[in-house]
Amino acid sequence: MWGRTLCVQSSSSGAGFACATGDCGSDTVECSGHGAAPPATLAEFTLASIGGDDFYDVSLVDGFNVPVLIAPANGSCPATDCPADLNVQCPPELRVVVAGETVACRSACEAFGTEAYCCSGEHGTPAKCAPTAYSRLFKAACPRAYSYAYDDATSTFTCAGGSAGYGVVFCPAGGSSGYQVSPPTSAAYPPMVFSSQGADPATITLLPLLMAIFQVMSMQ
């Protein structure tokens, strides 16, 4: 799950829909099963997996566009997030710039395409793919989030399957402290659109008895 920003719709039917970040290769508002084009902050879930447990994480492996919080609704499982605005501290060589403003931060893999940055080829194992200066910058800003492909130890979280719903909050106020979101301070950009594979975010069911609660705010 991810957020799309700086979106433009050219017709009332929803056709001709495109976003500057998090776009999904569709010409309409619905993504129709397509994934997010990087860079985009991802909220990832594997539900009812090993032993029936859920696994979830916030990933910056494909870059960053907006802060994201995942908070299990039952309160007994840990929250995870990337609460920082990495666009502010993004290195110049990774920036995606629109109208003079940095609107997203690419991963080093997307920017440079080398095996060392992409954890591929000869660097395709945890032993051979180490953190880089770029992934360390992401990790310092968002310690709970995936900063590169093999950043599992501090970035994957587990909850007993079937025991919780999950709140996914974009641009959360106070990081993992709760569900409140900051009010928008600028009307310079169009509203942020949540990508939900074409379904209504209010009615998405992750699993039977697991309801995702989505709170979306306008992109600042």
UniProtKB/TrEMBL annotation:
Pfam family, one: Thaumatin
Gene3D superfamilies found in the cross-reference section: Thaumatin
Keyword Transferase appears in the UniProt entry: no
InterPro entries linked: Osmotin/thaumatin-like_sf, Thaumatin
Protein's GO biological process: defense response
Keywords: Plant defense
PANTHER family: OS03G0233200 PROTEIN
Protein name, entry field: Thaumatin-like protein 1
